[in-house]
Amino acid sequence: MEGLKKQKCFLCDLSTATVLFEDSDFVVVLDAFSAVPGHLICAPKKHVKSLSELSETQSKELILLVRKLDTVLRNIFNPFRIAIISSGLAVEHLHFHVVPIPNEEMMWDFKYLRKDQTIEYSKQEKEELIEKIKKGLK
Fold first, then answer.
1. CB 3.0 to 4.6 Å from 83: which of 4, 17, 96, 99, for a disulfide?
2. Is 125 helix (H, G, I), strand (E, B) or coil?
3. What is the pLDDT of residues 104-138, one digit of tens each?
4. What are the Cα distances from residue 70, in Å, to 34, 63, 100, 135?
5. 2 or 93, which is more confident
6. Which residue ranges make up each domain of the chain?
7. CA 86, 91, 93, 94: dihedral to nearest 10 degrees?
8. Which residues fall within 8 angstroms of residue 84, CB to CB, at 6 or more apart?
9. For residue 69, which of 127, 27, 35, 120 has the smallest C-alpha distance?
C-alpha cells in the first residue's frame, strides 16, 4: 500500500504497553493514545494480518475475548455504545479496538478515535481503571 508508512509493530513488542490480560495466545492492552478512558486493544500474540491466518479455534477464542471485553467495559462505564473496530491499516497485526463511547455526540463525530486528543490519566486513575478491568476479566 503506497502512502502508508511501515511502522514498528507495537503488538509484537509490548515493552511499553500496559498489559491487562495475557495468555498463551492473546493479549489485551490499554490503548496508549486513546481519546476515551477504557479504550482497549485485543490481539493474538502471533503476528498475523487477518483472522484467516488463525485456526478456527483461535478465531473463535479471539472473538469470545472481544465479547468479554465488551461486557467488562459495559459494566465499568455504562457507555452509550461500545465500538469494536478492526482496521489493520497502520499496523499489520490483527487487532481489535474495543472502545466505550460515552455519548452520542462522540460516536457520530468519531472523536473516540482521535489520536490528537489523547487523554492523560493520573497515576491513581490509571491504577483504578487497570484494577477494574483486570477484576472484570477474571
1. 99
2. helix
3. 877 777 666 777 778 888 999 999 999 999 999 98
4. 16, 11, 8, 14
5. 93
6. 18-125
7. 0
8. 66, 70, 96, 97, 98, 99
9. 27
- Read off the C-alpha cell for 105: 455526540
- Please give, one letter per residue, the 3-state secondary structure of 32-88: CCCCCCCCEEEEECCCCCCHHHCCHHHHHHHHHHHHHHHHHHHHHHCCCEEEEECCC
For the 18-125 domain, the top CATH level (class) is alpha beta
Contact indicator for 39, 31 with CB cutoff of 8 Å = yes
Note the pTM of the prediction, 2 decimals.
Answer: 0.89
User: Would you state the cell numbers that stand for residue 91, as one nine-digit string?
Assistant: 499496523
pLDDT in tens, 13-69: 888 899 999 999 999 999 988 888 999 999 999 999 999 999 999 999 999 999 999
Say if CB 17 and CB 130 are below 8 A apart: no
**Closest to 45 (Cα-Cα) out of 14, 84, 89:** 14
